[in-house]
Amino acid sequence: MENKVKFMNTAKGILKEHDIEANTVDLNSIYEKGLSIEENIELLPVKSLKTKKDIEVEESKVLDENIKIAKMKQDKLKKEWKKDLMKTLSKPSSQIIERYFTTIMDSIDIMINSPTIHGVAVVSETGMGKSFTITKHLINNLKLKEGKDFIIYNGYVTPLKLFQVLQENHNKIILIDDIGTLFSDTKNVSLLLSALWDITGKRLVSYRSTTKKMNDLNLEETVDFTGKMIFCLNDFPKKLKNIQSRLYFFDMEFSYKDKIAMCYDMAKVNNIPIEVVDYIEKITTKANTKKINLRLVIKLNQARINKKDWKRIANDLLSVNKTREIVAELMDLDIPYDDKIKRFKEETNKSRRTFDSIKKKME
Predict the structure, then answer these.
(1) Is the pLDDT of residue 151 over 80?
(2) In the chain, ranges of CATH 3.40.50.300 domains
């Protein structure tokens, strides 16, 4: 037994010197009880065994092949998606962008006719067409006139200015468009709470001031607000649940494919050459999702019209770091998670934690 233990320890040392993993060799089956340690050592098939490097090379080749197959599968799915998208776009009225807002438009219709619901809020990243699409719905579908039936208000707003807007448009639809400071002032929040919900049967909104500004603006201290409110926002404070509960509230998120489809529709509606969006799709992956919006199509087309190198501009506007590109590509491949991590480490020398962190931000 003592000789076997010595053999095992010696054999493991020799295997290590030859860069061979000891757990890949069945030393128990090699050991012969009647032979000396030296004779048993001579039985080690060192030359015929695969080194750690040999195994890594073989595993890498297998992974290369699996990734190649996965990419072919992904390319096929992408082509099928693109074919279906182009088929939809070929119809006279594709309305891809409008489809994303169908439920929101229905909610606006309900709100306008509701005796109890007085607001709709739509939150999404900038440049995704929420203000344009909602305004278009008010004018084209509901036949409302800007100025007479509804107003659009944007820019910086103080509590006094907000109260002025509410009083002067007390019986209209007020579309608040992307006012980042709107909810940062508690007075604004109080005014909006009063305008959006009634307890006594009336939505009485009050503003009291010791200065003469109210008189200068010819404002009463209290207004009976009978209008409606639509908020188009890029962000909404999570702590303001009291505002959110009074509204039809929509927090919109768009995937990479959603955005590409909407960009194609944007190009079609505005008679922009399809090559502009083709190029956006060509140079992007999920890694670029946050940098893609409908305004990008307009910007690049303007560069094209002005005979500038619009493709170079597109490359600069959509650039992301290489690590994010690698994570995005691996996320789309139908291969085991551990294989994704292995390839990520090979290409970046970064950890599993880094991969998971970037992946989470892109989901």
Answers:
(1) yes
(2) 96-251
